[in-house]
Write a structure and sequence with these properties.
The chain has 96 residues and is an alpha+beta fold. It has a single domain, classed as Arc Repressor Mutant, subunit A (Orthogonal Bundle). The protein contains 5 helices and 3 strands. Strands 1-3-2 form a 3-stranded antiparallel β-sheet. A hairpin with a 2-residue loop joins strand 2 and strand 3. Helix 3 crosses helix 4. 15% of the residues are buried.
Length: 96
């Protein structure tokens, strides 16, 4: 049986992902592994401030982690299996 605390954490992570742009970021990071804010905002054609906002939300909810390398800050999925959620959503939409 799953503990209530684990269910609450899972719920918070899913809420953090539940936005079209955040799904796109998770999908991008699942393909590219580690990216900077600049690489993310350029790939998704959004403003850097918007990308930073979404990255911050997902980092605070445990979806993403970051590593600093000199001036660059690289974001990556804290739990790579989260990308399977995106795959599942895509498959479900193909069945509609």
């Amino acid at each position: 049986m799953i503990e209530l605390k684990k269910l609450e954490n899972a719920s918070e992570m899913l809420k953090a992902i539940a936005h079209p742009m955040r799904i796109a970021i998770v999908n991008l990071l699942s393909e590219e592994k580690k990216l900077t804010v600049t690489e993310i905002h350029e790939a998704l054609k959004i403003e850097q401030a918007v990308a930073s906002h979404h990255l911050s939300i997902m980092k605070n909810k445990g979806v993403l982690s970051q590593n600093r390398d000199g001036k660059n800050c690289f974001y990556f999925l804290k739990h790579p299996r989260l990308s399977q959620i995106i795959t599942c959503i895509e498959k479900c939409q193909n069945e509609i």
